[in-house]
Amino acid sequence: MSIPTRYKLVFFAPLNAVSACKTAIFTAGAGRFPGPKGYTECAFTSRGTGQFRPGDGANPHIGKVGELEEVEECRVEAICLGREVAVKAVEALKKAHPYEEPAYEVYKMEDL
């Protein structure tokens, strides 16, 4: 049985938006662990402090243009099986996330 290429989606969100963002990426197919056991909604979440300074053209959800803002956020990591799932999960994240520029990364994973 061939397992599709795996990707890891990592994103950062303010605490009050994490649940909605997770629901969105899971609905898009992220968080499904490969194998016959049927694990779904798999993710790792850790807390930290994010910071940003909105530029002149920004319309920030939190903070003010030109002012440094620090926000308690969560880093969420979830697996995506196949590129199509990763793309759909990113699209869903962008729709669910409250920031106009959500911070996220996608990594292609390898079996070793």
CATH class division: Alpha Beta
In the CATH hierarchy, the third-tier topology is known as Alpha-Beta Plaits
Kindly, what is the distance between the CA atoms of the first and last residues, rounded to a whole number of angstroms? 17 Å
Low-confidence stretches: none
Structural class: alpha+beta
Number of strands: 4
Strand order of the largest sheet: 2-3-1-4
* Oligomeric state as shown: single chain
Describe the global form: elongated
Total discrete domains:
1
Average pLDDT metric: 95
Strand content: 25-35%
| Number of H/I helices | 2
CATH architecture: 2-Layer Sandwich
Helix content: 10-25%
Radius of gyration: 15 Å
Q: What string gives the helices and strands in order?
A: EHEEHE
Largest sheet: 4 strands, antiparallel
InterPro entries: DUF34/NIF3_sf, N-reg_PII/ATP_PRibTrfase_C
Organism: Periconia macrospinosa
Protein name: ATP phosphoribosyltransferase
Question: If you had to describe this structure to a student in words, what would you say it looks like?
Answer:
It contains 2 helices and 4 strands, in the order βαββαβ. 20% of the residues are buried. Strands 2-3-1-4 form a 4-stranded antiparallel β-sheet. The radius of gyration is 15 Å and the shape is elongated. It has helices at residues 18-27, 83-96, and strands at 6-14, 44-52, 69-81, 104-108.
